[in-house]
Amino acid sequence: MNTAASTNHSAQIKSYLMVFGALLVLTVATVTASYLRLPAVLGLMVGLAIATVKASLVAAFFMHLKGERLLIYGLLGLTFLFVVFLFTLPMIDMSAIGINRMPYGGANAMAAPPPATAHH
Amino acid sequence: MNTHATTISGHNPEFATTGIPNGKLGIWLFLSSEVMLFATLFTSYIVFRTSAAAWPRGWDVLNVPLALVNTLVLISSSVTIVMAYAKTLERDQKGFRLFMGLTIALAFVFLGIKTFEYRSKFEHHHYPSSSIFYAVYFTTTGLHALHVIVGIIWNSWLWHAAAKEWDEWWFPGRIEYAGLYWHFVDIVWIFLFPALYLL
Asked: How confident is the model over A12-29, as pLDDT tens digits?
């Protein structure tokens, strides 16, 4: 391997290790945030925000999305659009029909299903 | 054709009608469908959780320290597989075997811990049918564990195939595709861990 390629690989390996360090720190941050016992919605937002940063680091550096071709970005952009639809539509539905009218909503959510067979 | 460039990058330009190797485009399309699959499960989780009158906190019913160890294990395996790919590009077969071997070993550690967690739940009579919380827990983590098993098979095959196929032009590309899949499996867990255990 020539010197330029070797230097390039060394720099890349260094970046992998730095991302690894960042992922470890963010994992500790996620667990620490959970001990703050934040209100449900705030806790959900903080937890998912940290997870998004971690996932972005993995995607950008380990999956080499940083500097990837436009076609891959387009493909992922389209996927993201469908994911947004997938998240948004049930939320609109929920707010429209009301939580307690949903078959598994409200007080029904934690209820165990009835036994499969009746014993006589 | 520049044979050296082809060998080092692992991509044969003859197949690259889109400017991207077909295999790479294929794996990204597959991962896009996987994103939709897991997004559906996450949507179900959010709908069930936000509509529930009561929902157990993950830390009350699940083993957070074990899940934390599993998170560290999976993140480490992401580093080892990207190192295996780097070693492939450096044409260092020994290095590749070492890091790919470590990736497979870490995947087994993850599954071992998951099995221990599942066994503990079954011993306490918690099954997918016990409640919606456990239905969501077992479905999401079970599907993820299935992906880990597929990753173990895929990576083991590559580890074994390196002996024969190391010098083939397409071999580095295959390592890259397996790596992309494995990082996706890691990303899914990155979201599952806080969603199920910490919130």
From this structure: 889 999 999 999 999 999
| Residue B17 touches partner A, C-beta closer than 8 Å | no
Nearest to B132 among A9, A51, A110 (CB): A110
Three-class SS state of B141: helix
Q: Are B77 and B110 in contact (CB under 8 A)?
A: yes
Q: Do A62 and B76 touch (CB under 8 A)?
A: no
Q: Rounded CA gap, B179 and B100, in Å?
A: 10
pTM: 0.88
- CA A120 to chain B, closest CA, distance in angstroms equals 22
Annotate A74-116 with three-state secondary structure.
HHHHHHHHHHHHHHHHHHHHHHHHCHHHCCCCEHHHHCCCCCC
Q: Do B36 and A13 touch (CB under 8 A)?
A: no
Rounded Cα distance, A105 and A80, in Å = 27
List the one residue out of B147, B76, B79 whose CA is nearest residue B106: B76
Single-letter residue type at B16: A
Buried/exposed A47-58: b ≥16 CB within 10 Å, e otherwise: bbebbeebbebb
Q: What is the pLDDT of residues A35-82, one digit of tens each?
A: 887 877 788 788 889 999 999 999 999 999 998 889 999 999 999 999
In B90-131, alpha helices (H): 93-123
Tell me which chain A residues have a C-beta less than 8 angstroms from the C-beta of B24. Answer: 72
Q: Taking the domain B3-198, which CATH number applies? A: 1.20.120.80
Across the interface, whether the CB atoms of B79 and A16 are under 8 A apart is answered yes
